[in-house]
Design goal:
One of its GO terms (molecular function) is hydrolase activity. Keywords: ATP-binding, Helicase, Hydrolase, Nucleotide-binding. InterPro entries: DNA_helicase_UvrD/REP, HelD_bacillota, P-loop_NTPase, UvrD-like_ATP-bd, UvrD-like_helicase_C. The structure is a single chain. About 45% of the residues lie in helices and about 15% in strands. It is of the alpha/beta class. The strands form six sheets. Strands 1, 2, 3, 4, 5, 6 and 7 form a seven-stranded mixed sheet that branches. Bound molecules: adenosine-5'-triphosphate. Adenosine-5'-triphosphate binds near residues 235 and 598.
Length: about 775
């Protein structure tokens, strides 16, 4: 192997030398383009005089400016391309490739060897020294089955090859440190090395060690809905980011990063993953949380935050209401209600100027329902708006002609008059036309508010409409089936109404509120978006997913989640899959399961999976570590002392720690107690904060999707986690740990730990 390493290093050195020459060429190109750009600009300011005296002069100037702009744009594009290319080369220079495969294509006389890296590199046309990891042939490196006859997919169909060598390299700064020859998927040894590393505050790409199952997710191009169910730490998020990079490569020219949206669980998570695509040489997709998606449309309404949602009262009635309002049935009920609005029932509001009514709501209603039954909500509304604008204009015109207005115009200063003319050329046919124009402009200014109210649909009383919708619900669905009585429903309506009066909406209501509004206004979905990714799908409701589906009508969906980590939707999460089944065509739906957990040591995974009732399907990746440590005391002060020691130990072992508590209040208390002992930590209070270096203290609902070297679960006592519905939350917290897990509680531990085999952890009681 020593010889092999030497030979491979020699090859790598050759490739690096060629990369460096290509870099030099790129740098030269960039310098030339910059010089060119400067010259064009200088030339322009020296030679172009603005000729505005005559029409032909103006045209000539305009043409020159256009030509110059085009030249500059071209240079700009060249510059951008060369800079991007250079950036990729600079990455390749440090790590040109990480794998080599030798194979013989069926029907080809000779065998080939190729090297696989982050991007394609050729020193001359068709002489590829490095293949992109996303190229069709690279797929065989990731697929299982070992050496011998294997197949891979190309855009033109399947190809067969005889694979004779699969070699992996660990590379740092263009120096090969280890070479592995392997006949497995991607050798465990390499994976072990990668997983043994410490966590960062930023997620890294997994391009060198993508596993076979993950490769399927990454390269799928058929499914309209790709649903990935995977255990905590099984690489769902990693795979999906790689998938985005793959799709951008596969559909280069047809798909751009701005046509891809990723819905993530919180803002912190966005921050955590935002380096992966740039590391892979691609631009980041659009990233947002569901909360941002809805809140940006309702700037004047306070939408319930993650913390409020997490800490809200979970009484029996609220649970039952959620079952109904989060369901697909309720989405259908909303749609049915909007059908009824086609003939009756839309709520309007007066359009006013100050306190004076300009258009009465009764008048608007009359117009709205004056169109025949072929008008649906969208065209009914636009026809109404058209009619209102027409009426507004005719009232303006009438007013404009009155002596009073004409006189007021004559009293205006030149400056005020200029404002009225605006950009309009002053070539009126006669003085009367000019006065009419000025009169119209003059009066129009006063009625701008009315115009805006019409354009922006302000005459629709959406709040009253929403309440009316809720009142109609008992006619549209059998409340008994949801174990709800009419009285309970009425009580709920009055709560929503009170909330709306205070300009507040819960996350459940906000979706049906927006959907109702969209149906009435006929808002079309965002057709530009081609791929939608939803992470942590278990925290979405079927209603929200139906809403997203119709909001992105041309998109393919990839949804990933772990039904065992549903911390907001609890018991509903398992029905989600079947509800999704009715939303998408079964033939175009693909479900992939990931069961192996890569994040944590075997000891941690074996412990955490026992928290679950059906955790058998989770398997640990064999990486050894310490057993989780449970510590309890009656006195909290003793525990804080122990936490401090634990932090010291972690720091000495170069492990960064996250302390995860249940509520924000508890986390804040601990932060303070540690501070008293001179221990500095960062308390993460909201999702809009940054992930700091050093120890952080974070409430559980913000820890979703993140991972840390060491986790301290704070106050895992019976008071905090007492019933079955908390099981998934406890699992989520514990499964954030990569290398070490310590659990503290005052008093008794949560009964959810009772089912765990005591051999799987160490316990200490003060
Ligand atoms: N093929 C792989 N090679 C190297 N590391 C991997 C691989 N797959 C997953 N990992 C690592 O495992 C950890 C967990 O991955 P990831 O966060 O993507 O899992 P997840 O399924 O989204 O987890 P969760 O549901 O708990 O948020 C990460 O550190 C990731 O880098």
């Amino acid at each position: 192997m020593v010889n092999v390493k030497k030979q491979e290093q020699q090859h790598m050195d050759d490739v690096v030398a060629k990369i460096r020459s290509a870099e030099d060429r790129d740098r030269q190109d960039i310098a030339e383009v910059q010089e060119d750009r400067r010259a064009i600009q200088a030339d322009f300011s020296n030679n172009v005089r603005i000729k505005v005296g005559t029409y032909s002069g103006m045209m000539e100037t305009a043409l020159t400016v256009r030509q110059q702009q085009k030249l500059l744009e071209e240079r700009e594009n060249n510059w951008k391309q060369a800079s991007q290319h250079l950036e990729i080369l600079e990455k390749l220079e440090k790590k040109p490739y990480f794998a080599r495969i030798d194979f013989q294509e069926e029907g080809e006389p000779k065998s080939e060897k190729i090297y696989i890296g982050l991007a394609t590199f050729a020193d001359k046309p068709d002489n590829f020294l490095i293949y992109d990891w996303r190229a069709p042939i690279s797929s065989i490196y990731y697929d299982g089955g070992g050496l011998g006859n294997v197949t891979y997919m190309t855009p033109d169909g399947k190809r067969n090859v005889n694979l004779t060598l699969k070699r992996q390299f660990m590379v740092e700064d263009a120096k090969i440190s280890v070479v592995f020859d392997t006949d497995e998927t991607v050798g465990d040894q390499m994976l072990l090395e990668v997983l043994d590393e410490n966590a960062d505050t930023k997620m890294k790409s997994i391009v060198t060690t993508i596993q076979q199952e993950q490769n399927k997710i990454i390269r799928d191009t058929d499914a309209e809905l790709l649903f990935v169910q995977g255990a905590a730490g099984s690489g769902k998020t990693s795979a999906v980011l790689q998938r985005i990079a793959f799709l951008l490569y596969r559909y280069r020219g047809k798909l751009t990063s701005s046509q891809v949206v990723l819905f993530s669980p919180n803002q912190l998570f966005n921050d955590y993953i935002d380096q992966v695509l740039p590391e892979l040489g691609e631009q980041n997709m659009l990233q947002m949380t569901y909360y941002q998606h809805v809140q940006r449309r309702l700037p004047k309404i306070h939408v319930e935050t993650l913390q409020e949602r997490f800490e809200e009262e979970q009484n029996e009635l609220n649970k039952k209401l959620k079952v109904l309002k989060d369901s697909l049935k309720f989405f259908d009920v909303t749609t049915a209600y909007t059908r009824y609005l086609e003939t009756n029932g839309v709520r309007f509001r007066d359009i006013k100027i100050g306190s004076e009514i300009f258009f009465k709501k009764e008048h608007i209603r009359k117009i709205y329902y004056s169109f025949n039954e072929n008008y649906h909500l969208r065209n009914r509304l636009s026809a109404t708006k058209e009619r209102l604008i027409k009426e507004l204009n005719s009232r303006i015109n009438k007013l404009a002609r009155t002596d009073e207005v004409q006189k007021e115009i004559q009293d205006l200063s030149q400056e005020q008059l200029n404002k009225l003319y605006g950009d309009r050329p002053r070539n009126f046919a006669n003085a009367e036309k000019e006065m009419n124009f000025l009169g119209h402009q003059y009066v129009m200014r006063e009625f701008q508010g009315v115009h805006r109210a019409i354009i922006k649909n302000r005459f629709i009383n959406i709040n009253a409409q929403y309440i009316n919708f809720l009142r109609s619900v008992p006619d549209l669905v059998d409340l008994n089936k949801f174990a709800l009585s009419i009285d309970e429903w009425q009580l709920h309506i009055s709560k929503v109404r009170d909330n709306l009066k205070q300009k507040k909406l819960s996350l459940t209501d906000v979706t049906s509120y927006l959907y109702l509004y969209d149906c009435i206004t006929g808002k079309r979905g965002e057709n530009d978006i081609k791929q939608v990714f939803i992470d942590e799908i278990q925290d979405y409701t079927a209603y929200q997913l139906a809403f997203l589906k119709q909001g992105f009508p041309r998109a393919k969906f990839t949804m990933l989640g772990d039904l065992n980590q549903a911390i907001f939707t609890h018991e509903n999460s398992h029905s989600l899959l079947s509800e999704l089944g009715t939303m998408f065509d079964a033939k175009k739906t693909k479900v992939v399961q990931l069961t192996k957990s890569y994040r944590s040591t075997q000891q941690i995974t074996d412990f955490t999976k026992e928290i679950l009732l059906d955790g058998e399907s989770v398997t640990a990746f064999e990486r050894k570590g310490e057993k989780p440590q449970l510590t309890s005391a009656v006195d909290e002060a003793i525990l804080v002392e122990d936490v401090a020691k634990c932090l010291q130990k972690n720091t000495a072992d170069k492990l960064t720690t996250a302390i995860i508590g249940k509520s924000l209040a508890e986390c804040a208390q601990l932060t303070e107690a540690l501070k008293q002992k001179g221990i500095q930590t960062t308390l993460i209070k909201t999702e809009n904060q940054r992930l700091a270096n050093g120890t952080i203290i974070v409430p559980a609902y913000l820890a979703k999707g993140l991972e840390f070297d060491a986790v301290i679960m704070w106050q895992a006592n019976a008071a905090n986690y007492n019933d079955d519905s908390e099981r998934q939350l406890v699992y989520t917290i514990c499964s954030r740990a990569m290398h070490r897990l310590d659990i503290f509680a005052t008093g008794d531990f949560t009964p959810l730990f009772e089912r765990i085999n005591p051999e799987l952890y160490n316990i200490k009681k003060y």
